[in-house]
Design brief:
By secondary structure, the chain is mainly α. Among the domains are: about 80 residues, no CATH class; about 120 residues, no CATH class. Helix content is about 65%, strand content about 0%. It contains 21 helices and two strands. It has a two-stranded antiparallel ribbon. Strand 1 and strand 2 form a beta hairpin. The two termini are about 10 Å apart.
Length: about 475
């Protein structure tokens, strides 16, 4: 195991950070007079395990090869989900291990699906912990997407290497430098979001928790009606703005600070992201207007389109009552997701763009058999190996989606619940469709086996599939 000292050393640090974070809800418990020792006990257990990993691997060589990068990525999310479930298990809510792990995994993967049916009467400490999990998951995936995944060549993420000279040995030093900048930016956006919510009428506690889950595009709310509970246009506008800010590549913020003032207008992913939002809103508006839906609301269309596309999962209306066509549009938006290097999930916009360019290129070859056509993306040429990586990712994405749907159906769930549950888990969106897990529903009524299937979908979707699947190949473990 000496080859993995850096992995376990890093895991120890992450667990210590998680354990220290558990002290924050204790302050909330004192403020709201909640007598519960769940966070203190969970914190001690987590810090002890983290310290053991940390202290027993102090002599690590501070290098991370490709094999170790994959292992660290998978174990990081899995261990945080396990230890993050302890406060739920120890709390007065008396959640089962299955429900506690589901809620924790949903939080750290920023999915937003919940098994808590009565959020209004849930202890404030638990509500804050859910928000903290999503906030940590959001910054975690940003750092990983910008530093680790490009080195791991996961599903075309190599496109986003900071430097062409990157090597696996340089991962950790570069991660520290970039991670600090990202944390400053991420924390600053969270503070601004909380301030705007508070100015527009949210209470201080709601402002804090919702700002965390907004920037993380996670969608956990303190109310069963989600953002719709506040019934406030300024709050919804503020939410949409900060959801979008959390959905664009965070590397663009660093480039902007470094002097590239037009990066937000020039970035090819951001431009396509805006186009998808506008086109979806126009299509849904025309459909609902001409079909004379009584609950037609441009406000609801704007908000839910942005929320579903980014995988945030906030809702301000029960959109599953809008008819079959809007549901189909929302399912498509779930799969697309936001930009690479952001807190969003899904297939990611850059892969959709490159797949489109590939199909266009193939059509040109049919029309002009002797022609030579080079695929270019963002002013750079794209080689066949890169294209294969993109296509294989998208292929496996839908294969796993159909497998999840089939497995959920085998557990006794109806078709709509199965297909939307599979989509919302692998795309890390949150709400599904239908009377059980619909926009204002929850996942508490599902069988335990269904919940475990959904948690598998969550971590697969969050870690870009291959970061998990590669661990099951025997050749991966051979030196």
């Amino acid at each position: 195991m000496s080859n993995y000292k850096t992995v376990f050393f890093t895991l120890g640090i992450l667990q210590i950070i998680l354990g220290v974070s558990m002290f924050i809800p204790i302050i909330t418990q004192f403020i709201y007079s909640e007598k519960d020792s769940s966070f203190f006990g969970a914190s001690i257990v987590t810090i002890i395990f983290g310290s053991l990993f940390f202290l027993s691997n102090l002599d690590h060589d501070k290098k991370l090869n490709l094999q170790q990068a994959f292992l660290l990525t998978a174990l990081s999310w899995l261990s945080i989900a396990i230890f993050g479930s302890l406060p739920f298990i120890f709390s007065t809510m008396e959640l089962s291990i299955t429900d506690a792990f589901f809620e924790s995994m949903s939080g750290i993967t920023t999915t937003g699906s919940t098994i808590i049916s009565d959020l209004e009467n849930t202890p404030k400490g638990i509500l804050l912990w859910r928000a903290i999990l999503q906030w940590l998951g959001g910054i975690g995936i940003i750092v990983m997407a910008i530093t680790l995944m490009p080195i791991m060549n996961v599903g075309g993420m190599q496109l986003f290497k900071i430097s062409s000279n990157d090597s696996s040995e340089k991962i950790l030093p570069k991660s520290k430098e970039i991670a600090l900048r990202l944390i400053y930016i991420y924390s600053g956006l969270t503070a601004l979001c909380a301030l705007s919510y508070w100015i527009f009428g949210m209470g201080k506690f709601d402002s804090l928790t919702h700002s965390m889950t907004t920037i993380a595009t996670g969608g956990f709310s303190n109310y069963n009606q989600s953002i719709g509970y506040f019934n406030s246009i300024p709050i919804e506008i503020s939410s949409m703005i900060f959801i979008i800010l959390g959905s664009i590549p965070f590397i663009t913020y660093i480039k902007f600070i470094n002097g590239n003032k037009r990066i937000f207008f020039n970035d090819i992913q951001i431009r396509t992201f805006v186009k998808i939002v506008i086109i979806s809103i126009i299509i849904l508006s025309i459909y609902l207007l001409f079909n004379n839906y009584g609950n037609f609301s441009l406000r609801s269309i704007f908000f839910n389109t942005i929320s579903i596309l980014t995988g945030t999962g906030y809702v301000n209306a029960e959109f599953d009552g809008w008819g079959g066509f809007p549901i189909t549009i929302f399912l498509a938006l779930m799969f697309i997701g936001g930009c690479a290097g952001s807190t969003t999930c899904g297939i990611k916009i850059f892969r959709i763009q490159i797949l489109y360019l590939f199909i266009l290129n193939q059509l040109k070859k049919i029309i002009y058999p002797k022609g030579i056509f080079i695929i270019k993306y963002d002013k750079g040429s794209v080689d066949d190996k890169f294209i294969a990586s993109i296509i294989s990712f998208i292929y496996f994405y839908f294969v796993i989606f159909f497998i999840l749907t089939a497995l959920l159906s085998l557990t006794g769930l109806d078709f709509i619940t199965s297909i939307s549950g599979a989509a919302t888990s692998i795309s890390n969106v949150g709400p599904g469709l239908g009377p059980i897990i619909g926009p204002n529903g929850d996942f508490s009524a599902l069988p335990d086996i269904s919940k475990w299937i959904l948690t598998v979908g969550m971590i697969l979707g969050r870690l870009e599939l291959f970061a998990i699947l590669v661990l099951f190949l025997p050749s991966f473990w051979r030196n």
